[in-house]
Design brief:
Radius of gyration: 39 Å
Strand content: 5-15%
Strand order of the largest sheet: 1-2-3-5-4
Protein name: histidine kinase
Helix content: 55-70%
Structural class: alpha+beta
Number of strands: 5
Number of helices: 13
Catalytic activity: ATP + protein L-histidine = ADP + protein N-phospho-L-histidine
Number of domains: 2
Keywords: ATP-binding, Kinase, Membrane, Nucleotide-binding, Phosphoprotein, Transferase, Transmembrane, Transmembrane helix, Two-component regulatory system
Pfam family, one: HATPase_c
Shape: rod-shaped
Distance between the termini: 57 Å
Organism: Arthrobacter crystallopoietes BAB-32
């Protein structure tokens, strides 16, 4: 399985779990039970259909008519398949009602049509569901117009019932069909809404995963670019001094080994989130003051004539903020080590004042002839992305008197930048 598909499945599982918890809280205890046990809901509806139609069926049996009881059993059995075959079940329920009206003396119908209409409405568009509900009701109404039950006809003839009682009954049947369809349409709308929320949750989980991978890629760029540049400079220096000063060459090689080990440790930490089971975002590593000092000493060992000026209070304790400042310093000095030639001084200034932190790295070197980028071309863009998180900016370019300068301004969380 590819890494991308694995990440997608993990995000969807995470979103599904979170969404299931939210949906469960929205439902009451009975809805939660029947949502978790749909077969139980089917049996409840079948039982309700039987209980509603059984009195008339038994009355018909007492008159010697067994057909209503058989039709009730048929529609109840058909409702067991309502989820898989909503159209055929509705057709069976409607046919049972029509046959009951045309072939029995009582003409009593069951609630099977209402259940079937509701089920169909949960699977089709609202207009289709309402049209089918009205059509089913009109068919039963037409059957009542063709064959009115004997008892009803006698009551009308005797003046006990108004002549339009059949029309009223038919309208009531159509009305209840429409109500059943309306309930089904509402349920379908809620289900579609839940599905949309589910997709939204999955998309957000995928976005979070993509953001985490972007962060990993940015960290990898900084780690590899810095470490390799320092290691190349150290190896070149060792090659130069190995004959003249073997002891000094040994120190440089030791620094080379330490830089490589540090790079490996950083890469393992950064890539840990991609390992199996490492799907949760990791807390950012907070560079200690000693690590900043080691970073500076590493560049000095690689040959940079580095001067450091610190002013103002220490950096904020925000781990992301500290890591951002660390990476900007690291990237800026790495670029100096890569590209500057003939430099006599490199200056790093870190100043905190007026609600902001200013980082400046400048050198007096010159670019090499036919300079080509040694990296992926994302270093400056990465610094600007990091600074933008803290309402900051990064400006870089050649100095008027030669050399290169990088100026970054960051605003730490919880304080507004000062306005002049």
């Amino acid at each position: 399985m590819s890494e991308q598909s694995s990440a997608k499945e993990t995000a969807e599982r995470t979103a599904a779990v979170s969404f299931a918890e939210i949906s469960s809280k929205r439902r009451g205890p009975f809805r939660r039970f029947f949502h978790a046990h749909p077969v139980a809901m089917d049996w409840v509806l079948i039982l309700a259909t039987v209980l509603f139609g059984l009195p008339n069926a038994l009355y018909s049996v007492s008159l010697g008519e067994w057909l209503p009881l058989g039709l009730l059993a048929a529609v109840s059995a058909a409702l067991a398949f309502r989820r898989r075959f909503p159209w055929p079940v509705l057709a069976v329920a409607t046919a049972v009602d029509i046959l009951t009206v045309l072939a029995t003396s009582t003409g009593a119908s069951s609630i099977g049509v209402w259940v079937a209409v509701y089920t169909l409405a949960t699977t089709v568009r609202a207009a289709v569901a309402l049209a089918v509900a009205v059509a089913a009701g009109l068919l039963v109404l037409a059957a009542m117009g063709i064959h009115m039950p004997a008892e009803v006809a006698e009551s009308i003839a005797a003046g006990e019932l108004p002549p339009y009682v059949g029309l009223v009954s038919g309208v009531i049947i159509v009305l209840f069909n429409v109500i059943s369809a309306g309930i089904g349409v509402t349920v379908r709308r809620d289900r579609l809404h839940d599905l949309e929320l589910h997709r939204w949750a999955a998309d957000n989980a995928m976005l979070a995963s993509a953001n985490e991978r972007t962060r990993i890629a940015r960290e990898m760029h900084d780690v590899v670019a810095h470490s390799l540049s320092v290691m190349v400079a150290l190896s070149d220096g060792a090659a130069v001094v190995v004959k003249k000063d073997p002891h000094r060459a040994g120190e440089v090689l030791g620094q080379l080994s330490a830089t490589g080990r540090t790079a490996l440790a950083d890469m393992r930490r950064v890539l840990g989130v991609l390992r199996e089971g490492g799907t949760q975002p990791q807390a950012p590593r907070v560079p200690a003051e000693s690590e900043v000092a080691e970073l500076i000493e590493g560049f000095r060992a690689a040959g940079l004539p580095l001067k450091v000026v610190m002013s103002g209070p220490p950096l904020p304790e925000d781990p992301n903020f500290k890591l951002t400042a660390y990476r900007i310093i690291q990237e800026s000095l790495t670029n100096v080590l890569r590209y500057a030639r003939g430099m006599t001084e490199v200056e790093l200034t870190v100043a905190r004042s007026d609600g902001r932190v200013s980082i400046c790295v400048s050198d007096d070197g010159r670019p090499p002839a036919n300079m080509k980028s040694l990296g992926a071309g994302q270093g400056i863009a990465g610094m600007r992305e990091r600074a933008a998180i803290y309402n900051g900016q990064v400006e870089c370019g050649p100095r008027p008197n030669g050399g290169w300068i990088v100026e970054a301004t960051l605003h730490w969380p919880g304080e507004e930048p000062a306005h002049g």
